[in-house]
Amino acid sequence: MTYSFTKATSKHVLKPVTKIWAFYFIIAFGILVVFKVNLLLQIESLKESQENMKAEQKRILKTTQSLEKEGERLHYELGVASQIKNRDEKLRTQIKNIINMIPQGIQISEIKFDNQILFIRGTTISKELFETSLQSQLRTIYSMSNASFYELPSGWLNFESISQTIGDDGLIERIDEIR
């Protein structure tokens, strides 16, 4: 015998709507965990790349500093080379001027220029002509200028003039003063 017109149904602890909410809550929690893990992995990756970038930055900074020092050294060497070139050009010009001032009575047969020594060989009519025209000009450039003379049968004189600088005797300053 039954006391009810409806058939008995079993009662569940959780209603079907609650089961659906729990399912969606678990899915949402799982998605948050996946995002959290993904963010942690990205943070670790960024930390590694940041360390690599710092090491690269230090290497680039060292390279830049060494290149700056090298540039300063090359700039200094360029200045020194330019100064030496200018001095050589002034000295060459001065020697050309001396050669252009050689009077008719002096004939030059050989000129050698080696670092700090100028060697001139030739013939002259008289010792005084050589001393007043050529030797005095050489003495204005070089600290020491000596000439030796040998008489030829024709009455002319062979001469050898050696002009040289001794150490740091101010040749560079004298050349720099030439305009």
Structure description:
With 179 residues, this protein is α+β, with helices and mostly antiparallel strands. The protein has helices spanning 16-100, 127-141, 171-177, and strands spanning 106-114, 117-124, 144-151, 157-164. A four-stranded antiparallel β-sheet has the order 1-2-4-3, with helices on one face. α1 runs antiparallel to α2. The longest helix has 85 residues, at 16-100. The protein is rod-shaped, with a radius of gyration of 49 Å. The model has no long low-confidence stretch (mean pLDDT 86).
Q: Termini, distance in Å?
A: 139 Å
Mean pLDDT: 86
The class by helix and strand makeup works out as alpha+beta
Within the largest sheet, what's the order of strands?
1-2-4-3
Low-confidence stretches: none
Helix content: 55-70%
Taken as a percent bin, the fraction of beta residues is: 15-25%
Helix-strand string: HEEHEEH
- By DSSP (H or I, 4+ residues per run), the number of helices equals 3
Reported for the largest beta sheet, the result is: 4 strands, antiparallel
List how many beta strands DSSP finds: 4
Rg estimate, integer Å: 49 Å
Q: What form results from the Cα inertia axes?
A: rod-shaped
Give the structure's gist in a few sentences.
The chain is an alpha+beta fold.
Question: Which tags fit this structure?
Answer:
rod-shaped; 4-stranded antiparallel beta sheet; alpha+beta; 4 strands; 179 residues
What's the topology here?
Elements: H1 16-100, E1 106-114, E2 117-124, H2 127-141, E3 144-151, E4 157-164, H3 171-177
Antiparallel strand pairs: 1-2, 2-4, 3-4
Helix pairs in contact: 1-2
